[in-house]
Amino acid sequence: MKQCILLKAPAFSFSFFLFFFFFNHSKMGNEQTRHQVPQGMQMQNYDFNWNAVSPRADVAIGSTDFVVGQKVSVGVGNAKFVVAKRLNVGVGKVQEAICFDKVEVGVGKIMVLHCHSGTSISCGLGLIKQKHFHDIHELAAMARNKAHVAPVVPQGPPGHQPYPPQGQ
């Protein structure tokens, strides 16, 4: 009788330990890989014209050199360079990415990620090898150069020059 009780007690405590280990570990993993803007802080305006690019771009199974869009999804495919407001990588691989608002990686890989401190990053079983945090305006300039998008010209009253003349 005592042998049965001794065998049951360690088995129960071991399963109890496993339950709490996995419960706390999964909770800890999400908190460690998620970077979000503190509440009450407004997102900054930056000079990138999202209306000039596609609202959605998907790489399902194939491979591509360059993808730009407001929301980019890489399923099982590969992309060498991505410029996105929101990026979702499933099982695929992205060599280099510039992302502004949100990055989600499932089982896939992002080798180099350029983002700013307000970008929400969530990584499941996947990998983000390198993260480079930039100033929001520097990130927008990098994205404009890569995507060949003209800067947004601020609207003002007639005769208003949004940028001072160069060389004077």
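(ticket continues) Second input and output from the same batch:
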Amino acid sequence: PGGVAPVRGGHARAASFPGLFVCVEKVSNLYRILMLCRDYGRGALGRLVIVTRPHLAARLAKEATAFRYKFPGEDHAVGAVLTIEGASARLSGVERIVAVDLHAGASVLAAREGPAHRVLRGAGALILGFESDGIPAPLLDGATAYVQIRSRTSLNLAASMSIVMHCMAWVPVAAGSEEAALQT
């Protein structure tokens, strides 16, 4: 979604991200996720939906609002902070929902360009689960594809999101294409 922006080093920069539904249960993770979205830009913060448990919703919404004012002159409004039920309702009707999670049918995200990269870039929405217990069942109901990150150990939420956003941000450019011509 969103086209391709100018190129650098054999890769074009993706113009925008899909809806980013990220399950957060710790304030420290909230700030890491917000900074990742700020750093990647291209509307990522506005497309970010923080999904949380009902008892944390007000606190995370307050923290996300406070984040907006830490960078004067920049617009850093978060798309929304929702409970699992609210996020599930928001996802209804979204096409191509990709869950980043362990799954028997998942495409494996590896260092080299492959099927998982294409699945991520074709997503209408991405879901990353809670560190403690993964993606809640109501959010998985609409998932049309799964991607898992190749790793020898478990990754925390911020590391997983960083890897996914990096893979989505850079699109390989075919030699001889118009984008490749812009590399000079």
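Agent notes: The mean pLDDT is 82. The beta strands are 4-8, 11-14, 19-23, 48-52, 80-83, 97-100, 107-109, 125-128, 143-149, 170-172. Closing as not reproducible unless the customer responds.
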